[in-house]
Write a structure and sequence with these properties.
The protein is α+β, with helices and mostly antiparallel strands and about 375 residues long. It has helices at about 1-40, 45-55, 60-75, 75-90, 95-115, 125, 345, and strands spanning about 140-145, 150, 180-195, 200-215, 220-235, 245-255, 260, 265-280, 300-315, 320-330, 335, 355-365. Helix 2 runs antiparallel to helix 3 (about 60-75). The chain starts with a helix and ends in a 13-residue tail after the last strand.
Length: about 375
């Protein structure tokens, strides 16, 4: 009987310990989320308190990383380094290790800019944040019988070296369609008519490269630079020879994201733009000289209208997949070489046209000004 009682007691103690650990993990995660909300509100000191308490409850590297970010944003450089050092001492993931390494380098660069000398450890146990547990957790942590919380020795907190808060370190916005610029690629295919009837085929396909820039973050209105290549198939032989058409377009467009309140990662985006077009009819014997210098020597202007549906993936909505439909329109050729090449009328390019298309694309978003360092994203 005594043996059964001992076994039951051990099981009860193990269950209680597991429940206590689970409670601490839940509390730590709640504190971490509260800290991030405070970061979004630019309340960095209060956020640091939340991250610090989360780290004292559960020895997770992500809490130290967030604490490093908030301390740095406060201008408390040595406390930031202390927290960042604890990230690597607690087995972070490879991705978090890389982020932490970059953040440490950012701190060192900013300290150098401000003529601040930092110790290699950020103060550690001799001058850093004394409320931080040592590597592997605080063996002296005990449950608070009144609230189920972990108590840490009430040593005074030392601030170490303090400098000016760094500019543009943390993006004070929740994950959303907040980005500064982006790069993307799209493939499209469709058909229509360019030039005189039967001068070229009706099927067309191509590739578009684009760079977007948000002009008004509040209204989600942006501008796009694009370059697209379109291949139009061969036409019938009404002109005495079969010919296809290649088109290079260089254009600029305006767009606006309309995102769904119930599904914020989904957006509907209409776009309108204008482009300059260079055309090369491959069936024209006079369009290519021996030195290949007369390709694309027929110029036109045109426009583009498009509507697409996109889904944003990733922690900060940085990966975007899209599907869309649109139309490219073209004027008759307005300029061509006068070196003996065939005239636009000879090739059927004295008439304009339009090509409708369906397309799919991928875009990567950047949330920093072009050429600037990346913002820190919290864990």
């Amino acid at each position: 009987m005594t043996r059964l009682t001992s076994v039951a007691t051990a099981v009860m103690l193990a269950a209680a310990g597991s429940a206590y650990a689970q409670t601490q993990a839940q509390l730590a995660e709640k504190l971490n989320e509260e800290g991030k909300e405070l970061m979004f509100a630019n309340k960095y000191g209060e956020a640091s308190d939340k991250f610090l308490e989360a780290a004292t409850r559960v020895n997770e590297p992500k809490y130290y990383f967030n604490l490093c970010t908030s301390r740095f944003q406060e201008g408390k450089f040595e406390l930031a380094v202390t927290a960042c050092n604890l990230v690597d001492k607690n087995n972070p993931s490879p991705e978090l290790h890389d982020k932490n390494t970059k953040l440490l380098a950012r701190i060192q660069d900013e300290a150098k800019t401000q003529n601040i000398t930092l110790s290699s450890t950020g103060g550690g146990g001799g001058g850093g944040e004394q409320n931080l547990p040592p590597e592997g957790g605080d063996p002296n942590q005990t449950p608070d019988p009144n609230g189920g919380q972990t108590r840490v020795g009430a040593q005074p907190t030392r601030t170490g070296v303090v400098g000016r808060p760094p500019p543009a370190l943390f993006m004070p916005q929740r994950p959303d369609h907040h980005y500064t610029w982006s790069l993307g690629v799209e493939g499209f295919g469709g058909g229509g008519q360019i030039g005189q009837s039967h001068a070229f085929g009706s099927a067309a396909g191509g590739l578009r490269l684009k760079a977007d820039y948000i002009v008004s973050p509040r209204t989600r209105v942006g501008a796009e630079l694009y370059m697209q290549f379109t291949q139009v198939g061969q036409g019938q032989m009404d002109f005495g020879f079969e010919q296809s058409l290649e088109i290079f377009d260089f254009g600029v467009a305006l767009y606006k994201h309309w995102c769904l309140a119930a599904a914020p990662r989904l957006c509907f985006t209409p776009l309108v733009g204008a482009h300059v077009s260079l055309m090369s009819p491959s069936g024209d014997a006079n369009s290519m000289a021996d030195d290949n210098t007369q390709l694309f020597n027929y110029a036109a202007v045109g426009g583009r209208a498009e509507a697409n549906l996109s889904v944003a993936l990733g922690l900060r909505y940085e990966h975007v997949l899209s599907i869309g439909a649109g139309v490219n329109v073209y004027s008759p050729v307005i300029s061509s070489s006068s070196d003996g090449s065939a005239t636009p009328a000879d090739l059927g390019l004295d008439a304009g046209g339009a090509l409708g298309y369906l397309g799919i694309g991928y875009t990567y978003r950047f949330n920093t000004p072009i050429g600037a360092r990346a913002f820190i994203t919290l864990e």
